[in-house]
Amino acid sequence: MTVASQETWVALLSAPGKSALASIGLSGPKGWEILKGVFLPRGGEKLPLIPTALETRLGRLGMGRGDEIVLGIQSVNPFHARLHCHGGTQVVKMALSQLEKAGARRCAWQEFTRVEIPCRIQADSRIAVAQARTRKAAAVLTNQASGLLREWFDSLVQTIRAKENTKAVETINQIQNWSHLGSHLIHSWKVLVAGASNAGKSSLVNALVGFQRCLVSEIEGTTRDVLWWETAMEGWPVNLADMAGFRDNPTELEAEGLQIGLEQSEQADLCLWLLDPTRPLVFPPKSIPTEKLQFVVNKIDLLPLHRNWPQDAWLVSALKGEGVDALVKAIAKRLVPQDPPADQPIPHEEAFVIALQIAREDLLAMRNNDAVNHLSPWIMG
Predict the structure, then answer these.
(1) Looking at per-residue confidence, does 229 or 336 come out higher?
(2) Cys staple from 235: which of 136, 171, 186, 356, with CB 3.0 to 4.6 Å?
(3) Could you tell me if residue 184 is inside a domain?
(4) Is the domain of 324 the same as that of 208?
(5) Which of 264, 320, 328 is nearest to 296 (CA)?
(6) Residue 218 lies in a domain
(7) Domain membership flag for residue 4
């Protein structure tokens, strides 16, 4: 969003819907004048001509009707304030309406964040925190939003301007090693469970998710489509799917489901190919990339079994739960071989990663000014 410097913005910052409390943000050069026109402090006194940073007041909006509101002044220049009120939808609606009528312009909380935080890197990191699917991902993003990524970026730009190109390229290379992890802090990893019909794929998905999500049946061909379920493995967000099983003479619906599953395997980060050792082993089609493939032997509780499966296969009994915890850890380790240190800057936006790649090419060609120009929008917003 292009923000006009003279606009004053208002937004609901807490979650929409009913809640115990709601928080409203007000930011812009006319913010104090707007508040002086609509905010009535408790006790009848008027707001002073000039606001004081970090000041807190109790009062009401409008003509003194309605619920009490706590007003907090975060900063004066630039002006940023918070209004905290009862979380009922009508109370919030009334408060926003009063501020709009007084001259504030309403926007979504994401745009408001960019108003208050002009640096695009920090603003986007703050927004990303709210989109994180797990606490662990949120913690990593919170570190970025707290200034970690911005400090790294400032140091990189200084290195470029000092014409230390070798050091700058190495700095970019180092952070790019974490870009794959960064891309999954908001968008979960995708893990596809595939294999022969009745190999126990649905049972394994249920065991990994923690409760029954997929229909389990001894009848082959029960699963005919690809359904994704959200879970977490070692704290990382994972979308898990069970696809139709491979077998001779599939029905038309099964064949369609298999085709969809094969297409999904191209988008998956990992494909768990389930082997049933109680039957002749069925191996995956060549269309599934080998770098994404991991064999899993199911039904290890049914002994004796022939053991001609791949040596690097993971062993599990989905029905009995044997090896499931170890499998979860192994999947997480495969997806994230190394957890990032707390002080590790991590790029989490594809556009930022691309900008770094372009800047790296500029540096290799000794075009330092071009490198700075390609990176500058991430500071200015």
Answers:
(1) 336
(2) 136
(3) no
(4) yes
(5) 328
(6) yes
(7) no
pTM of the model: 0.85
The SS3 assignment for 109 reads helix
Domain total of the chain: 3
Which structural domain range is residue 153 located in?
120-178+341-380
DSSP-derived 3-state class of residue 57: strand
Helix (H/G/I), strand (E/B), else coil: 47: coil
Position 250 pLDDT exceeds 60: no
DSSP one-letter code for 147: I
Q: 3-state class of 27 per DSSP?
A: strand
Asked, for residue 273, whether it belongs to a domain, the answer is yes
Are 85 and 162 in a shared domain? no
Cβ atoms of 29 and 8 within 8 Å: the answer is yes
64/36: higher pLDDT: 36
Q: What value, to the nearest 5°, has the Cα angle with vertex 137 and ends 133 and 151?
A: 135
Asked whether residue 247 falls in the same domain as residue 206, the answer is yes
* The pair of three-digit structure tokens given for residue 36, joined into one six-digit string: 């002086």
Structure tokens that stand for 181 in this block = 């992890």
> Residue 198 is encoded by which pair of tokens?
């009745």
Residue 119's contacts (CB-CB under 8 Å, 6 or more residues apart) are: 150, 378, 379, 380, 381
- Same domain, yes or no, for 264 and 310? yes
**Residue 252: per-residue pLDDT:** 57
What is the identity of the amino acid at 276? D
Residue 173 shares a structural domain with residue 259: no
Contacts of 214 (CB under 8 A, 6+ apart): 201, 202, 203, 205, 206, 223, 227, 229, 242
